[in-house]
Design goal:
The complex is a heterodimer of chains A (about 525) and B (about 300). Chain A is of the alpha+beta class. Helices cover about 40% and strands about 25% of the residues of chain A. In chain A, helix 2 runs antiparallel to helix 5, helix 5 (about 60-75) runs antiparallel to helix 6 (about 95-125) and helix 5 packs across helix 7 (about 135-160). The mean pLDDT of chain B is about 85. In chain B, strand 8 (about 150-155), helix 5 (about 165-175) and strand 9 (about 180-185) form a beta-alpha-beta unit. Classes of the chains: A alpha+beta (about 525), B alpha/beta (about 300).
Chain lengths: ~525, ~300
């Protein structure tokens, strides 16, 4: 321990300017977070209206702070460089694990510990108890260590100097973008969420093992190329596996096909009207098409979420057009009677087949949720606490939303608002059209142990109510249909926790469809 | 006498370049061993292999009885390593560096540190960045000597230093010679001649010879023979006779296996009766020049 402290003291002496800058960033982060107008719903940032540039630049404080931590970690590790054969310290009696421990101690003392106090302060300032949440804060710290400091230590230990580290980051960025681009071409890869959770955990563990292995190997043996190989082995293996995974099979396994339309939900394709040609979007390499679908039979208190869609186009004298499963995020409530499902295709394919009469087949992957633990919540003036939601208030600028703060993550929620039961008056100056239909808000259920941000334990989230009406249209001349839900103090909303009930697949067919009638075009 | 350093067919390739080829070396304990050779001979590569700074392509080495590939961490409490190629931490001050290193060595001798600092005239409160190259080498040496290492390894420590600094370093080094084995590499014969006890000559990655320096000096002699009559040199001459020349009745050559009994007998066998024979001891420089010339002759002949 004595040697660890000895190296630590040396590092503190060397990096004191960086330590001060890190603390300054942390101070600014606290200031920005507590005064952010987006956070509080009121423009509390002093002078924000006078100095919008300042307000904008303050938005960059958190990412800059994180970037500075990466820089500091790399500099710290490269204080005793592990790459090359000219290092002074290599022929000194350092023990590798003590050196690594000293670096970790520095990161804990200089970054994690001050951040921990800030996190405790954030919780306390927001009005949440600290003690019951301490373990979760430590979990946040571990998460930050794994996603930020471990890769930064790996970067510092596998590169010779700062420039090499920057080059490595740029190279990694290019490779990741390229690999992501390639993986997106794998059919149905957008539905990777349908893969079992156990496999996701295995993926995380493999990445962790490659980083820990590379760092340990490099500190213990200074075999740079082998350590780099260990580091790359994880992502390369995962990338190769990701390209080989039969995503469609996973989707089909997770969403069993329904023998017949379920009583809770009956979808049907509505034959589109013939439309005039619109060439405004011809510059795009992709053509966006939408299929109107009628919906019925969703029971009150239920939600059907469209998770994915697969489109088959049977074209005369051509092979079937099938781009695989594509993710969708459409929520259907009992009140919804129609929706539009969107997909895209390459313009050259579209131009080739658009006038032809086709047979269209849709396959939809659906999840049904049911309300659980239903209760009514009366909205109040100002801030009001709620056991499930956290501490909430109505948003002045957006009457359709409730803004809440809660420790660690937003809860899964099904929210229903019936305007006819509320007596919300709108000021005469307000030109908005009031939505009179039943509106809903949906927050997907998540892992109770998860944390939304590794920096701030207080999560700021919105419950935005809307009636399911489309809010915008690409059609020229079409007025956006935006009817605003109007919430007010005293109004009641129905709160429920979503309980997953069923997952299944349905197939829909339509004959004699022309693609040009499905494209976003003027009526 | 046990060996402080021993290598067995130690080989290092850098891609297609054979930097070190089958090095078999033995450095006795308490010796001051000088590994000499021209630039690019493989001296630094050999030292880096011994210090486990790089890995060998094949072969093994033992340093202070340890497998060299296991040298790391605490092993360095017994080894003082100084190299002109090391990146000394320039942000530190002289005093802070020594103070920092102190804690890592159980045998660190504070009075010795003070005396070395004084002897080398090191300014404790100056940043290393601001030191001259010679001062940096003196600092490196002071830090390598202050803990009474069993083995001191110096890689080209005197390169480019002025004679005064060089003498100071040698003086500091020799004061420690009794308690340590010193292994030093250099391409300058003159600077090691005065204090090395053993010498090894490395050329193109191969160890041409390795022996006690006094034995080396004893077996090399410049021989001058005055014959009764002039004429052609007889052939063949003994292989240990290098660069034979004749000018009238005078024959000169370098005897590389000089023996007070055998050499005169061989001269008599080759030349018969002679007027006069003289044997002059040679300096290291002359010995190495003679060896280099011998090599050139072999190359030309082939």
């Amino acid at each position: 321990m004595r040697e660890i402290l000895h190296i630590f003291r040396k590092d503190v002496r060397r990096h004191w300017p960086e330590i001060l800058i890190s603390l300054l960033f942390l101070g600014l982060y606290v200031w920005v977070t507590l005064r952010s107008p987006w956070r509080t719903g009121t423009a509390m940032l002093t002078g924000a209206s006078l100095w919008p540039l300042l307000a904008f630049s303050l938005e960059w404080i958190p990412p800059l702070m994180v970037l500075f931590w990466v820089f500091l970690t790399v500099r710290l590790v490269q204080g005793e460089p592990l790459v090359g054969d000219r290092q002074w310290w290599v022929t000194k009696p350092y023990e590798w694990w003590k050196l690594l421990a000293a670096k970790e101690l520095f990161l804990v003392a200089v970054i994690s510990l001050p951040l921990f106090f800030v996190q405790v302060y954030f919780l306390s300032h927001a009005g949440f108890p600290v003690l019951p949440n301490l373990v979760r804060i430590l979990y946040m710290q571990v998460t930050l260590g794994l996603i930020l400091f471990l890769p930064s230590i790996a970067l510092g230990s596998l590169t010779k100097n700062l420039w090499q580290a920057v080059l490595a980051v740029v190279l990694a960025f290019v490779v990741i973008v390229g690999a992501t681009n390639l993986l997106q071409r794998v059919p149905s890869s957008g539905m990777s969420s349908s893969i079992d959770e156990a496999q996701s955990v295995a993926t995380g563990l493999l990445m962790l093992a490659s980083f820990v292995g590379a760092v340990t190997w490099q500190f213990a043996r200074r075999k740079t190329w082998r350590s780099r190989g260990v580091l790359l082995a994880g992502p390369v293996l995962l990338g190769s596996l990701a390209a080989l995974i039969p995503y469609a099979r996973f989707v089909e396994r997770k969403y069993a096909i329904a023998a017949s339309a379920l009583p809770q939900f009956t979808p049907g394709i509505v034959h589109p009207k013939a439309k005039k040609r619109d060439n405004r979007w011809d510059f795009l390499s992709e053509v966006y098409l939408s299929i109107p679908v009628s919906v019925s039979g969703i029971a009150p208190g239920h939600l059907v979420r469209l998770d994915g869609m697969r489109v088959f186009l049977e074209i005369p004298a051509n092979p079937t057009w099938d781009p695989g499963w594509k993710p969708q995020r459409t929520n259907l409530w009992a009140e919804n009677q129609q929706t539009k499902l969107t997909f895209s295709m390459k313009r050259e394919d579209f131009e080739r087949i658009k006038p032809q009469q086709l047979r269209l087949q849709l396959e939809l992957a659906l999840t049904e949720f049911q309300e659980g633990d239903v209760r009514d919540l009366a909205l109040k003036e100002g801030k009001f606490p709620d056991e499930l939601l956290g501490i909430c208030h109505l948003v002045v600028q957006n009457p359709s939303a409730i803004e809440c703060e809660r420790p660690f993550h937003a809860p899964g929620l099904m929210v229903t608002f019936e305007p006819s039961l509320a007596k919300c008056e709108i000021s005469e100056d307000d030109k908005r059209i009031v939505e009179s239909r039943v509106s809903h808000a949906w927050l997907p259920p998540g892992d109770d142990d998860s944390v939304s941000s590794p920096l701030n334990p207080v999560v700021d989230y919105f419950i935005s109510l809307y009636s399911g009406e489309f809010r915008w249209s690409l059609d020229e001349g079409a007025q956006p249909i935006v009817k605003r839900v109007y919430l007010c103090p005293g109004a009641g909303v129905r709160l429920a926790s979503p309980v997953e009930k069923n997952q299944w697949r349905v197939q829909l067919k339509m004959e004699n469809v022309r693609l040009e009638d499905l494209a976003f075009q003027r009526d | 006498m046990t060996a402080a350093i021993q290598t067995h067919a130690l080989t290092k390739h850098f891609r297609k370049v054979r930097a070190l080829d089958q090095l078999n070396l033995e450095v006795p304990e308490s010796a001051v061993y000088a590994l000499v050779g021209p630039n690019g001979a493989g001296k630094t590569t050999g030292i880096k292999l011994l210090m486990n700074l790089i890995g060998a392509t094949s072969g093994t080495a033992e340093v202070l009885g340890m497998d060299s590939t296991q040298i790391r961490g605490k092993s360095y409490t017994q080894i003082g390593y100084v190299s002109e190629n090391q990146d000394i931490p320039e942000w530190m001050k002289v005093g802070f560096l020594l103070e920092y290193l102190r804690d890592f060595y159980p045998t660190w001798d504070r009075p010795l540190e003070d005396s070395l600092v004084k002897q080398f005239e090191l300014p404790r409160d100056r940043k290393i960045k601001a030191l001259s190259r010679g001062m940096k080498m003196k600092l490196a040496l002071a830090s390598a000597l202050s803990f009474h290492p069993k083995l001191i390894v110096l890689d080209e420590p005197f390169g480019g230093l002025d004679p005064l600094v060089r003498d100071q370093l040698i003086e500091g080094l020799l004061e420690r010679a009794e308690e340590s084995t010193i292994f030093i590499s250099s391409h300058d014969l003159a600077e090691i001649e005065s204090f090395a006890s053993h010498i090894g000559y490395l050329e193109e990655g191969r160890l041409r010879f390795s022996e006690d320096i006094s034995a080396l000096a004893a077996r090399f002699r410049e021989v001058e023979i005055t014959l009764n009559t002039g004429g052609q040199l007889p052939s063949p001459l003994p292989p240990s006779w290098r660069q034979p020349q004749n000018s009238g009745p005078v024959v000169r050559f370098v005897e590389s296996q000089f023996d007070t009994e055998r050499t005169p007998q061989e001269i008599q066998r080759v030349f018969g009766e002679t007027k006069e024979v003289s044997f002059r001891p040679m300096g290291l420089r002359a010995i190495f020049l003679s060896m280099a010339k011998k090599k050139e002759e072999v190359q030309e002949a082939s």
